[in-house]
Automatic annotation (TrEMBL):
PROSITE patterns xref list: VOC (PS51819)
SUPFAM superfamilies xrefs: Glyoxalase/Bleomycin resistance protein/Dihydroxybiphenyl dioxygenase
Native source species: Actinophytocola xinjiangensis
VOC domain residues: 1-113
Pfam families in the record: Glyoxalase
Protein name as catalogued: Glyoxalase
Amino acid sequence: MITRIIPYAGGRDLDASRDFYVDVLGLEVTMTDPVLGLRSPDTPAAQVIVTPPGTPSADLGIDVGTPAAVDQAHAEVRRRGLRVTYPLTDEPWGVRRFFVEDPGGTVVNVLAHLS
């Protein structure tokens, strides 16, 4: 079950990005490390992730709901011979994820929360 699709934005200056998304657009900060996570206060699944320079990043993220679904997607990606650009990993901030390049070249972060 897909629970959300999250766009990623590059962040050359995370403070300026935070000010823009919070002060101009009214989003609220949900995470500051290792990326800047923002969401709508009215629709929590409406989110933006801002990645600082040097951080592994994707073009978008797809939350597939459960760690088992991440594993299933990873197995299918490997079966199809698609390019994995970031390995299957349990991150210290509580997500299981991997990055895959889709057939058009878009890098997708396939993820789910561990708990």
